[in-house]
Amino acid sequence: MATPADKLWRNARLATMTGGGLGVVEHGAVAATGDTISYVGPGAEAPDAAEIIDCDGRWITPGLIDCHTHLVHAGNRAKEFEARLEGATYEEIARAGGGILSTVTATRAASEDELIATALPRLDQLIAEGVTTVEIKSGYGLTLNDELKMLRAARRLGDVRNIRVRTTLLAAHAVPPEYRGDADGYVDLVCREIIPATVGLADAVDAFCEGIGFTPEQTGRVFAAAVVHGLPVKLHAEQLSNLNGAALAARHGALSADHLEHLDNAGIAAMKRSGTIATLLPGAFYFTREERRPPVQTLRDAGVPIALATDCNPGTSPMASILLAMNMGATLFRLTVEECLRGVTINAAHALGLELGVLEPGSPCDLAIWNISDPAELVYRIGANPLHSRVFAGQ
After folding, report:
1. What are 53's strand-pairing partners?
2. What is the rounded CA–CA span in Å between residue 249 and residue 308?
3. pTM for the full model?
4. CA-CA distance, 56 to 9, in Å (whole number)?
5. Among 152, 160, 168, 340, which residue is least crowded by beta carbons within 10 Å?
6. 82: Cβ–Cβ under 8 A, 6 or more apart, which residues?
7. If phi over 0 gives left and psi between -120 and 50 gives alpha, with beta otherwise, what is residue 329?
8. Which regions of 217-364 does DSSP assign to beta strands (E)?
9. What's the pLDDT score for residue 92?
């Protein structure tokens, strides 16, 4: 007889995300011992448990994962949104001193506690939609102390809410005003001082490789410094133009390359070789009214796994809904239901270097339990939240 578990969720339909698809188990059950899944499978074969929860036929998926956010920041950029409605482009706003740098000014002026207070409503929205793991980037400080402040705030969010937080250093997000005209000098600071100081506080290093960001050569220097300090890398790549950033990221073994609207075949081939995840961000595509879509079919044909994320940020994707991100991924990028669901579970986990996002023994017991009759409902509905309950680390 199987060893009794601590908790058992029975009378459920499971989307385990195993086996390369949704991994559906009808009449299923999930058991947990402590914070870890100890059984997944037919309800008739489930172990006894100290606590039994009857799911009444509801669906259970892994807890959802938002693998690309800028959740910690101060202020908003509603006026820039208005300017874009009147015809200004993202690049024009950035070159006029707006864009990222306007958020830098507000974030530098905010205390760590204030950053936490302003981020919590956004985090709570994600939690309410079944998110159990979230990535949070820095990148609105652009000084050593302000980048550290943002990373500390992000880590503390994981202390005040039941959620797993992965932090990413994005000091190479923009050239700060005090280094205007000297991007190489700022990259020196990032490599020499900021990256070493964030070891133990950041889980990865990211950069914005773009005409209004950093060149491939500068990005390569940032990545080299990250690797020296044992930090994996990620990249904002090919959003506005093709600078071959995805291929650069792949050469450094990047966990993910994100955005990718201008990704070419060479970049896709490099990502396939390195195992780099393609993280698509339909919220930014929608909000900035872009017209060039990521090459989804070519990514499929090459077998590059696709993740989806909100890209929650004040300038180009002020969205804190992982469910809406899935709907946008389907409607704007023509992803399938299966691709959307795997994109916010197992593939999103791999984009963070984590072994999560599946229902299988040995995985953390992070569950989302849904009032739905079919998994397609999680992608199909707009403005609806069918979450029944959320379980994080077995609780």
Report:
1. 9
2. 18
3. 0.97
4. 10
5. 160
6. none
7. alpha
8. 234-237, 256-259, 277-280, 306-308
9. 84
Residue 252 gets the label, from left (phi > 0), alpha (psi -120 to 50) or beta, of alpha
Q: Which residues contact 79 (CB under 8 A, 6 or more apart)?
A: none
In the three-class reduction of DSSP (H, G, I as helix; E, B as strand; rest coil), residue 90 is classed as: helix
CB 203 within 8 A of CB 233: no
String of b and e for 156-180 (b: at least 16 CB within 10 Å)?
bbbeeeebbbbbbbbbbbbbbeebe
- Tell me, what amino acid is at 148? L
Phi, psi (deg, nearest 5) at residue 376: -60, -25
CA distances to 115, 177, 219, 220, 236 from 211, rounded to whole Å, are 29, 17, 12, 15, 12
Residues of the chain short of pLDDT 70, as ranges, are: 1-2
Retrieve residue 10's tokens.
């029975």
Distance CA 258, CA 68 (A): 8
DSSP string for residues in 216-227: HHHHHHHHHHHH
Provide the residue type at 13 as one letter. R
Cβ 150 vs Cβ 107: under 8 Å:
yes
d(CA 62, CA 368): 6
Contact status, residue 147 vs residue 171, Cβ threshold 8 Å:
yes
Distance CA 116, CA 123 (A): 10
Whole-number pLDDT of residue 2:
65
